[in-house]
Amino acid sequence: MSPSVRYLLNRLGFYLIAAWAAITLNFFIPRMMPGDPASIMFANFRGKLKPEALEALKQTFGITDAPIFSQYLDYITHLFKGDLGVSIAYFPQPVSSVVISGLAWTLFLVGISLILSFAIGTIIGMYIAWNRDGKLDSILPPGFALLSAFPYFFTAMILLYVFGFKYGWFPIRHAYSSNITPEFSIPFIMSALYHVFLPACTLVFMGIGGWMLAMRNSMITTISTDYISFAKARGLSERRIMFYYAAKNAILPIITSFGMAIGFALNGAILTEIIFSYPGQGYILFEAVKSQDFQLMQGIFLTITLSVLAANWIIDILVLALDPRTRK
Amino acid sequence: MNRNWLSRLCNNSKSRIGISIVSFFIIIAIIGPFFFPEPNAYVDAPLLEPSLEHIFGTTGQGQDVLAQTIAGSRSTLFIGLSAGMLVVFLGLLIGSIAGYFGGRADDLLSLLINVFLLMPGLPLMVIIAAWLPPGPYSILSVLVFTGWAWNARVLRSQVLSLRQRDYVFAAIINGESNMRVIIYEIWPKMISLITSSFIGATIYTIGAQVGLEFLGLGDVNKVTWGNNLYWATNDLALLTGSWWTYVPTGLCIALVSFGMTLINYGIDEISNPRLLSERLVKEKYPFIFNRNGSTPVVRTSPSE
Amino acid sequence: MNKVLEVKNLSVDFLMDSGSFKAVDHVSFDIHKNETFGLVGESGSGKSTIVKTILRILPAPGVITNGQILYNKDDILSMDESSMASLRWKSISIVKQKALNSLNPLLKIKNQIMDTIQSHISISKIDVMSRCNELMDMVGLDQSYLNSFPHELSGGMRQRVVIAIALALQPDLIIMDEPTTALDVVSEKEIILKILELKKKLGFSILFITHDLELILEFADRVGVMRYGKLVDVDSSKVIKSGGNHEYSKKLINSIPRLEAGKDTNKDVMFDPIITVTGLTKIFQKHSSLFSSKGEQVLNDISFDLNKNEIIGLVGESGSGKSTIAKILTKLLKYEGGRVEFNGVNLSDIKGKESLLKFRKTIQMVFQDPFASLNSIHTVYSILSRSILIHRSLSNLSKRERKKAIEKEMLSILSEVGLSPPETFIYKFPHEMSGGERQRISLARALIANPQVIIADEPTSMLDMSVRMDILDLFMKLKKDKKISIIFITHDIASACYISDRIIILKKGKIVDSGPSDEIINNPGHSYSKLLIDSCESGWYTKQ
Q1: Which chain C residues are closer than 8 Å to A245 by Cβ?
Q2: Which of B102, B246, B253, C282 has its C-alpha lying 20 to 30 A from B111's C-alpha?
Q3: Are C63 and C23 in contact (CB under 8 A)?
């Protein structure tokens, strides 16, 4: 087994442990809270539920009088069968189908925003690190810092209000126009892009600052290494040093942190989707909270966690491919 | 040397601005509510635009926005700072144990840290907060539970590298107990990092707190910045175009976070000796200084 | 004679918060064609600064404040950026210390050589490749390594690549800035011989910077001696070797330890072992994960004794395992096999607070790096008082009495290690003292515990040559006056012989030779010992 494969299997093992931890947390959280979950829900519905419905809920929750361990086993079996329960907010749809529909849209939104903010942020970061302490360096980092200091949903609200409401340049809700059928056609894709524009802008504006700062700091550290001063001594052109010697090395640790960044981007995406009524995971989570739909909430938590883990593993593969040192 | 560090921080322009902003809000949080004892009181017709009478206008329930904003600062900042401190303290403790003792303890703790880091923060916070009874302690626990891992990792790697210094070995060989070594030899070298971690943690806790309250998971009857925004959305601020119900609070949140970020920039700048060196040359010889070019020649005496 | 480089009255300042610091003070010297010129000085003397100034790659906060550097009658200090760019490498190139880090980890070797060539001359791809091949041959490296990444080559090989890059454009002058400091003595000699062979073949001048006077006198034509930014002496090697024209040169010459057993060695050694090591093995576990656990055998079946009143020299290159032995003996590291006994007690049996403290009183250590062994945030007072509190029973005294006792003890120990007047040192911070003074403080800290054994891990290798002998003499005095046994760890067999009664030679984790110092020198039992001794002897270059 080559060391690279061994390394990837190692990481996979770690992600499986994390997945197990998430699943188990999911199981225990409702059971650790004061009072039993079903009664909490019952109280929350303020008597709008018939007793039979309550029993059915308890069943799907797996809250029986059986010992905890067998409840746990039931829960795991249900999970592997893809049965996450029935949603209340989107009654009578099963949680699994609700969750899948949201996943695609969130991936679309987060994917576009991450790639854009990463690309723009790192390029800007590279330039201001090279010309550090210059005019741009004094303005841009604090400027973007101010921008990202606003809560995500706040920026989303402003953008929505100004460009959606007041000027009407962009739609103010949903992922695509209601008069187009969702299929792989040009009008659909155009509509999707049109609708994702403002939410994506929100995420990109908020995200650029982070990448820019990370790249800037990484570049500054890289620039003070011996091989950069040796490159300068050899008379290599500034351009070549900046790109092939400095940036190429500086970007590696950034990519490694991409996995972590996905987590943060997701947080922002959730809040942004809510404002724009964009039917992704975040919006669904919000609906679930509003309707006290615990099954759905937990279903969303699981899918988000599993997607993040999968994405991280893909990043690990990417880093391995890019850094020759890890291939040793 | 610590005194020197503090004075350099105060001299740095970025951190000076940051410190002033944050101090301003802290002062408001402490004495402000005395001037506005009843922020939830009905003062006038709902959704009035800002005027001389009500500088920030009124909310959808006829409350004074200025009063709400000022009153909200106390709860948000207090919980934010306390959670920030708890997060850093927990992270420092766990990170130090993992980094100092190594071996099995480190393997286990690192696994724990990495698992927590990977789990998406907001969804986790949401489901925990949804189950917990609303109140400040719930928010505090949720924030600390989801936020400690980041600092633990950062602080751990610093402890790990300091652990291998000769002076640490020398102290151990001389007979010092492990606890003394950690507290007196290692932690003092981490002041910069601990401070910036605390500030970063507080930025996080304020943002997360606001986010949770915005979703309605806080105690909606208390006056906090997050709740202000929750009620503003509930009262259809967007659709009625009543921007004044949420902009002031949003601005305050942003300014506090921004101020803290500036302080961290300052810490960063004074901790990096190369930036300092370059700035010294640039200040004295601004016209000749070329950051990426050849060493400058400045003749102070005639050559022979 | 044609002059390649003329340095006239060069001055360089370093700007600081509070004023500026003169790193180079009106230095003048010339380098002739085809000459090997050595620039010698201790750390901080300014020699590295001069080198970076010649190519004007000195980073901030350095500024050049005076002088001229003439290359073929053009003043480098008046050149604009484009002339500088073409001067660099085509006319003057540089090989730096620790070349291990001079190469971009993400580019293949061939790309880095090609980079250099292509940024100066426009040349076809085929020609560039053949030049690369040529260069690899010149430095004695297999051409297949052109397609490797830097981390796939050993330290010595990377150094050769850097030399190849330096030669790429056939410069007139190659500057070598302590190019062999990080290498072991054997590789060091190999590299130098190779460079000199190339110099003869291709015809270029060399400016060789080093702190090792002994080394440079072997092969340089002329030598310049620097101190505190000034050039105090410059003359032919022959003259410098016999003491030079300045008292500082004379002092440096005299501080080179001769390869002969010290006069006080092998006296009063009692054959009563304090430490007995039998069959010690240590394996370093590379961080094991779920699927792999590779180990590196760092120590293999080590056995030796340390007697009362004895100094043993543990000699070996970096990576031979000598520091590992030190860390195992002080219980900083665990070991996998074998047995270590302290006064009859097994080392692994020493557990628990009390016995551990007792153990700490028997063995102490002094480290290699004077800058790293004292925590910069503590004053001498806080460092030493901690040691006093731990090792002297002062708990039944009142607070005031305790303070007095601490001070008294501190002053006495400071005088013992040769710091006088002792009162002036008590409230100093580490950065306010010189390297030699810091080592003495570390020694003081160790002595307070009244140990039976002191391990000195390369205590002088990072000190200036002029203070080394003093520290070595201090160790010998401690053995004589306080009857402390010492394990002296070093890579320099000459200084080991100077103070040790017995010598143990270590190679790659195994003991290859051991015996009394004079025997080792005159009758080395192993080829490796012979190798070490030979590379110490003067005249190794002229013998070639």
Answers
A1: 104, 107
A2: C282
A3: no
The residue of A301, A303, A309 whose CB has the most chain B CBs within 10 angstroms, and thus the best one to mutate to test that interface, is A301
Question: How far is C284 from chain A, CA to nearest CA, in Å?
Answer: 18
> What is the SS3 assignment for chain B?
CHHHHHHHHHHCHHHHHHHHHHHHHHHHHHHHHHHCCCCCCCCCCCCCCCCCCCCCCECCCCCEHHHHHHHHHHHHHHHHHHHHHHHHHHHHHHHHHHHHHCHHHHHHHHHHHHHHHHCCHHHHHHHHHHHCCCCHHHHHHHHHHHHHHHHHHHHHHHHHHHHCCHHHHHHHHHCCCHHHHHHHHHHHHHHHHHHHHHHHHHHHHHHHHHHHHHCCCCCCCCCCHHHHHHHHHHCCHHHHCCHHHCHHHHHHHHHHHHHHHHHHHHHHHHHCHHHHHHHHHHHHCCCCCCCCCCCCECCCCCCC
Q: How far is CA A237 from CA A199, A231, A233, A249, C112, in A?
A: 41, 9, 10, 17, 13
Q: Which residues in chain C have Cβ-Cβ distances shorter than 8 Å to B1?
A: 376-377, 429
Nearest-angstrom CA–CA distance, B117 and B91: 12
- SS3 (DSSP) at C269: coil
Instruction: Tell me the mean pLDDT in the region B120-130.
Output: 83
Q: Which CATH number fits domain C3-91+172-254: 1.10.3210.10, 3.40.50.1820, 3.40.50.720, 3.40.50.300?
A: 3.40.50.300
pLDDT at residue A260 greater than cutoff 90: no
pLDDT in tens, C175-226: 988 876 666 677 777 888 888 888 888 889 999 998 888 888 888 999 999 9
CA distance A225 to chain C (A): 8
Contact A132 B114 (CB under 8 A): no
Number of C-beta neighbours around residue B94 at 10 A: 21
Average pLDDT over residues B15-31: 91
Domains of chain C by residue range: 3-91+172-254, 99-170, 308-334+347-542
Residue B1 has pLDDT above 70, yes or no: no
Chains near B, with 3+ CB pairs < 8 A? Answer: A, C
For C26-38, b/e burial (b = at least 16 CB within 10 A) is: bbebbbbebbbbb
Sort out which chain B residues have CB atoms less than 8 A from A153's CB and list them. 211, 214, 229
Is the distance from CB of C490 to CB of C481 less than 8 angstroms? no
How close, in Å, is residue A149 to chain B by CA atoms?
A: 5
**Predicted local distance difference test score (pLDDT) of residue B289:** 72
List pLDDT tens digits, range B31-65: 988 888 777 777 777 777 777 777 788 877 778 88
CATH architecture of the domain formed by C308-334+347-542: 3-Layer(aba) Sandwich (3.40)
What pLDDT does residue B38 have? Answer: 78
So what's the pLDDT on residue B86? Answer: 95
Q: Which residues of B touch A33 (CB under 8 A)?
A: 131-132
Residue carrying the six token digits 């006319």 = C91
**A130 touching chain B per CB within 8 A:** yes
Q: What is the ipTM of this complex?
A: 0.82
Encode pLDDT of A164-189 as tens digits: 777 777 777 777 777 777 777 787 78
Output the six-digit token pair for C138: 């010149």
Which of C119, C152, C289 is nearest residue A236 as measured by Cβ atoms? C119
A161 and B CB contact within 8 Å: yes
With CB atoms and an 8 Å threshold, state whether B280 touches C57: no
Domains of chain B: 5-23+72-269 (1.10.3720.10)
Exposure of C473 in the CB half-sphere (CA atoms within 13 A): 10
Query: Residue B215 is nearest to which of A34, A263, A289, comparing CB atoms?
Result: A289
Question: Which residues of chain B are within 8 Å of residue C327 when distances are taken between CB atoms?
Answer: 169
